[in-house]
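Researcher: Batch entry, complex prediction.
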Amino acid sequence: MLGNFKYSNPTKLYFGEDSLSSLREELGNYGPTVLLTYGGGSIKRNGIYEQVTAILGEAGKHVVELSGVMPNPTAEKLREGAELARTCGADLILAVGGGSTIDYAKGVSVAAHYGGNAWETFYKHQQDPAPDARILPIGAVLTMVGTGSEMNGGSVITNHAEGLKIGKVFDERVMPRFAILNPRFTMTLPRYQMVAGIFDIMSHLLEQYFSGEDDNTSDYLNEGLQRSLIAASRKAVTNPDDYEARSNIMWTATWALNTLLKCAKLQDWMVHMIGQAIGAHTDATHGMTLAAVSIPYYHHICRYGLPKFARWAQAVWGVRPEGKTEERIAFDGIDALEGWMREIGVVLSSSELGVTEENIEAIADSTLLLPTGYHHLTREEVIDILRDSL
Amino acid sequence: MLGNFKYSNPTKLYFGEDSLSSLREELGNYGPTVLLTYGGGSIKRNGIYEQVTAILGEAGKHVVELSGVMPNPTAEKLREGAELARTCGADLILAVGGGSTIDYAKGVSVAAHYGGNAWETFYKHQQDPAPDARILPIGAVLTMVGTGSEMNGGSVITNHAEGLKIGKVFDERVMPRFAILNPRFTMTLPRYQMVAGIFDIMSHLLEQYFSGEDDNTSDYLNEGLQRSLIAASRKAVTNPDDYEARSNIMWTATWALNTLLKCAKLQDWMVHMIGQAIGAHTDATHGMTLAAVSIPYYHHICRYGLPKFARWAQAVWGVRPEGKTEERIAFDGIDALEGWMREIGVVLSSSELGVTEENIEAIADSTLLLPTGYHHLTREEVIDILRDSL
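Model: Structure tokens for the complex:
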């Protein structure tokens, strides 16, 4: 734990099968108008919409609906939501859905009373809301796991016209005030979405882990979360109705990317940068874009962080070191990761997602090259990794 | 993660070598009168008192001193502090010290404007402050690590006349609003106190870990924190000036006993119950009382939770399972724990702390028998464990 940092996370979490009952109590803290934000209507089919609106009705709230939030929420949709939030005088944005919906709610919360172009200011130019900015409070009812958006300030918005998918990490003012985590709500999710979410979690863990030279408590916590995720995901793919496994995955997701693991840590995030560029060009499912490039990426950077890869192989995957070089141990770890990915059934080839020899250069051009991690990629290396991922 | 729970931790943490500079900013949130609480004066010798009072002076605060907080703060001292806090009109209690000082500040914060006998109500009868109770806000500058008091609601008070040392876990209203964690401030601590603190942390981890049958993300996080503590403590006892090691220990202590690991977990806490009874009779250092009884305790309960002990032996201590019974693996884990305790130099015999054949029965009578963990101890079993610990 080198360096100075502040840790503060104000989000209240209500976890468990009965957690939605806490919504009633929380609603008492906000004014009458609730902007109810959700996606394509799956919450209507699985009954969550009905349960949530019943509680809103009992609480006497004036509900304004903002539906149709897409898996990769767009800058256009953000404009639409901000306009609605402002004109209806929303006192609370209640996001019901997965990371996309909560990410979107964060964008709306800062854009509603902001005069300018929120996409340009907050995402493209990475500015922070002014100290006296009016930011609408957010509550979340989580129905998909993966992004950790329920307990952090992260928000990703896509601009297809510009070929950009950009994440912004907002401060505490934008973080959900409360989040309701009911593992049962995640159980109607199709398997493809479930395993994409699981890999998103793993990627959050790996991208915070593979950076920095110092010995750090965060990395030990990170290894614990990886081991929890591996154990629970194996149970969940065998039996998606295993409540215990699904609940461990949900809790792991929250702690994998709230504000804890990054404390005093250098981070990497190049898998997310490449994955987001693929997403901007193909609209593929986020977790799958990460899965498709991870093995080529880690093979590529492994040699620059061998000691950490070798530690990881042993601590997380139980690789035995006897009689092996550090490089062999590290590669055995990456092989174990790949084996687990095959086991849970994530996409291992970016061709399946719409990446082709023809659009690789455009994707590389949209990839933000961060000066982080064990090695700083060039555009040419991104192209190599994308080609390996086909 | 079975069951329903709420997670919410409002404490802001400022960590690092420069963290005290954040005190200035935090003081702006509180009224003019600060009750400055500390122990026996070591903060005057090491210069921390001077740094803190300089910042209080610059902020124009009216400072009232409440010093002489003892390692095991007493019910009498609590009465004295509450009276002072009330009469001086304290707006903030600033605790500068270790867990004892912060535990004490929590007692004072609820007792100051409470009419009755705070020891009886909150500790002996384990009641909660009334919903509309006036509770003074607390800030902490940590100079010793171990208890985790800086980010939780726990508070232990001792009544020597009654032979009782009782912990109370208060709710969020009593938790420190902010805590300043500067690893350098812990470096002047004598080795005895340092290793006692390290064992206190380990005991918090073990007592939350050894209970429950379910697979739980908390246990994986717990294993990660144990591994971090073992690695960092080995470095710290070799070189107490190793900033990185001391900082990892400090951060591990906070997360070992804030509100995270207990989520959806059954817990044990019998080592603390026996240790606190020893403390009430001998006034011995808290962490050493836990160390003295741990090996006999775990040998005693191991057979009731064999699968978990065997998992722990492998995951935390790297015990190899090949060709061994589950019991052998478990015992190898306890042996590894004992080896590490010898290595860091904690007390392994309760005789050293003043436990004798003569006072064992009285200590057992003061031991709260909790219906928790893998096995519910009887008074006779407590006596056996105490005898084994001599």
